[in-house]
Amino acid sequence: MRPWWKISCESCSSKFLRCKSLSSQSKNVLVVADLPPARLERLLAKYDLTLHLQPGDKSITGSFWGDEEAGIVGRNVYVRSDTPIHSLLHETCHTICMTQERRGQLDRDAGGDDLEEAAVCYLQIVLADEIDAVGRDRLMSDMDAWGYSFRLGSTQLWFEGDAEDARKWLIDKRLLSKSGTPLFRLRV
Predict the structure, then answer these.
(1) Is the pLDDT of residue 5 over 70?
(2) Residue 112 falls within a domain, yes or no?
(3) What is the predicted pLDDT for the residue at 65?
(4) pLDDT of residue 26
(5) Residue 91 within any structural domain of the chain
(6) Which domain holds residue 104?
(7) Is residue 87 part of a domain?
(8) Burial class (CB in 10 A: 0-12, 13-18, 19+), 149
(9) pTM, to two decimals
(10) How many domains does the chain divide into?
(11) Which pLDDT value is given to residue 160?
(12) Does residue 6 belong to any structural domain of this protein?
């Protein structure tokens, strides 16, 4: 069975999720500096999560991939002004989707299985609609530009035609309503 998703660098064919040639500047994606911080803080506050904006010359606390990628520790999400919005949402959704026990021990590595990863990707797209000036269409475009690669060829095709298992997982864990709207609660 082929994986439902992979993220690779188109520039160097790296099999790693992240390489140095992927950057928010070179990929023209929305970054934290493009939005008022309060807009992002409000969304995270709905989940009792805290957003921390760090100086641009410092490594991001809790970042698994380094560079400008968001970091997570406990209920805290760390970013810099050059952090892509899709990265902020992805790490936020990892924090939302993991169990309370894992969240209590969270420091950088979200862990989880493939289905939870799919649910994280699905939820980050749904939550993009909760941020004025972002929305799911722009977020999916940014995910494609960054190098997310899905079985059907694009983030949108995956979201609309191949993500029912992720949606069901989110509903079963009481993170989305049956109509697909966020319930603004953390997985227990």
Answers:
(1) no
(2) yes
(3) 86
(4) 55
(5) yes
(6) 24-172
(7) yes
(8) middle
(9) 0.88
(10) 1
(11) 97
(12) no
